[in-house]
Amino acid sequence: MNKIIPVILSGGAGTRLWPLSRELYPKQFLPLAGSHTMIQETLLRLSGLADLGAPVIICNEDHRFLVAEQMRQIGCNPAAIVLEPVGRNTAPAVAVAALHNEKHDEVLLILPADHVIKNKAAFHAAIKKGLQAALAGKLVTFGIVPTAPETGYGYIRAGKADKKAEALPIDAFVEKPDLATAQKYLKAGNYFWNSGMFMFKPSVLLAEMKKHNPKIGPACSKALKAGSRDADFLRLEKEAFAASPSISIDYAVMEKTSLGTMIPLDAGWNDVGSWAALADVNPADAAGNVVNGDVLTTGVKNSCILASNRLVAAVGIEDHVIVETADAVLVAHKNKVQDVKNIVDQLRAAKRCEAVNHRRVNRPWGTYETIDLSDRFQVKRITVNPGATLSLQMHYHRAEHWVVVKGTAKITKGNEVIILSENQSTYIPLGQSHRLENPGRIPLELIEVQSGSYLGEDDIVRFEDTYGRA
Hints:
Layout: E1 4-10, H1 38-44, E2 56-60, H2 64-73, E3 80-84, H3 90-100, E4 107-112, E5 116-117, H4 120-135, E6 139-144, E7 155-158, E8 168-174, H5 179-188, E9 191-200, H6 202-212, H7 216-225, E10 228-230, E11 233-235, H8 238-242, H9 249-254, E12 260-265, E13 269-270, H10 275-280, E14 290-292, E15 295-298, E16 304-307, E17 312-315, E18 320-324, E19 329-333, H11 340-349, E20 360-363, E21 366-373, E22 377-384, E23 392-394, E24 398-406, E25 409-413, E26 416-420, E27 425-428, E28 434-437, E29 444-452, E30 461-464
Parallel strand pairs: 1-2, 1-4, 2-3, 3-11, 6-12, 14-16, 15-17, 16-18
Antiparallel strand pairs: 4-9, 5-13, 6-9, 7-8, 7-9, 8-12, 10-11, 18-19, 20-21, 21-22, 22-29, 23-30, 24-27, 24-29, 25-26, 25-28
Helix pairs in contact: 3-6, 3-7
């Protein structure tokens, strides 16, 4: 039987869905259109396909523990979680996946981690059609049957084919159009949205890549061979991978190959690329509003209002988006939501943490949340998962007070090991090596008060670490 190997591309930053999506916690790791996160949904919707192999997931190093934990939550055991040391767009990522699976040459199904597909049966039917074309030596892409003159997507122009043909020839890939051009495409009937999903055999993809963009393959091959295994992760060698051209698989191969073919897909697809798109994939009330959280409205129409931490009240607005998080609030007109990324650019230019992290920061051992911060002190709420252990570490510039408020803490201080339960505390002097563990079966919660001349997260010297961090 011919296996299908899912390859999940999870390198996006999701800047247009700020403030929910952040650099270190982007949209694919959020439950934006269901009870599971988007990357989890991407894999779960494949269930029921015959002869499905273990997936390969490609992400950046900063997201590695998020990927591993979210896969564990749904009982998925990936064949590999490949870590990109630098971003190089989709062509090198796909090349790495092809090289990783070159030996058995089983068909790869390339899927972005952050799409919504509502009709699972139609999706599976399209994959089965794509499998036959891929086994026949084609490079398959999926063209979304358009439902509106969308200006935010690239298009694929399909050529004429026999009426019985399930795959269509590709005449051209077309850049994002203006509204008038998009309306013409919709009326023409042979233009499809470019989904960014593909199927092909590794041998075919690598041969075409060698023909049309020959620098990618050798760089990725070297990065893979010189890479290293680290717990659940396959780390690509940085210098070799960085030497690859940064280019999309569309530009590198699909627009140039003569082996391209397209399977039409009408399955309720949405790439959730903006707040307006997110509103489209969630149920609305009688006034056309999508609301979530503690929200009160009066005279509000066709708006999307999400509250994470406090009451949000809206009066007399229409076609707006309001998103509230612990440290930021976004207010935007639906017609301008594509410009949210400009706000993220401003935050990055000012080196503000709101572009990168939420107030609650995920770590492989649990989470921490900053409660208060001043020049000489910082207060955090720390949650350590059952059985988890922080690194053995020390700080040059700060001392720490720990107060246990829930669970049991095992604490190493120099050569001393102590056990603390609720309402007990300890003090870690500046320069003392220390480690925090949760030996219990419930989450450990404690309040940490830091004091010192410098409170940055980079004031950590790690002596031992379960998670392979430097």
